[in-house]
């Protein structure tokens, strides 16, 4: 069960002004859609939070199963895995230009100060590709042909 699940939507891309394609890329197809009186469309998206595929969790469960011969732990592990995740829904109202004009429903809470500090600390250790500098002129590569004197 830890090897099955659905990826969570990235709510950084789901905001007012986002195109319908951007929202549907993160949320998937809407569960329902209705036209409103003012000419806008309201789409309801249903998704599962907290049950993404996790190979690490599966490894821990597999190791625990092997260490206690599976008989005693299986009912406990199964109940824990069945209670992973929860269903949520978000409603997005699109204007005539297919851009989000209103978002209601589940929106994850902002990260805590401790989480932000931890993420900033991790960013220090991630190797990043250097950005090209525009202040230096491009130098031509040396030619491949060589001439002897």
Q: What secondary-structure arrangement, pairings included, does this model have?
A:
Blueprint: H1 20-27, E1 32-35, E2 41-49, H2 55-67, H3 74-82, E3 86-94, E4 100-105, H4 113-123
Antiparallel strand pairs: 1-2, 2-3, 3-4
Describe the structure.
The protein contains four helices and four strands. The chain has 149 residues and is α+β, with helices and mostly antiparallel strands. The protein has a domain at 20-108. Strand 3 and strand 4 form a beta hairpin.
Taking all residues together, what is the mean pLDDT?
Answer: 77
What are the segments in which pLDDT stays under 50 over at least 5 consecutive residues? none
End-to-end C-alpha gap: 72 Å
Q: Which secondary-structure class do the elements indicate?
A: alpha+beta
The ordered H/E elements are HEEHHEEH
Task: Please compute the radius of gyration using only Cα atoms.
Answer: 25 Å
How many runs of DSSP E, i.e. beta strands?
4
Shape: flat
Question: Strand content of the residues, in percent?
Answer: 15-25%
């Amino acid at each position: 069960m830890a090897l099955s699940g659905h990826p969570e939507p990235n709510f950084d891309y789901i905001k007012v002004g986002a195109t319908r394609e951007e929202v549907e890329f993160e949320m998937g197809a809407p569960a329902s859609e209705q036209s409103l009186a003012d000419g806008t469309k309201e789409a309801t998206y249903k998704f599962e939070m907290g049950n993404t595929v996790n190979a690490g969790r599966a490894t821990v469960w597999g190791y625990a199963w092997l260490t206690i011969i599976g008989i005693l732990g299986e009912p406990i592990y199964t109940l824990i895995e069945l209670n992973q995740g929860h269903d949520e829904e978000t409603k997005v109202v699109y204007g005539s230009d297919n851009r989000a004009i209103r978002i209601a429903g589940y929106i994850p809470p902002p990260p805590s100060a401790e989480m932000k500090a931890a993420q900033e600390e991790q960013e220090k250790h991630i190797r990043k590709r250097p950005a090209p500098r525009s202040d230096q002129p491009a130098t031509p590569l040396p030619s491949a042909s060589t001439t002897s004197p």
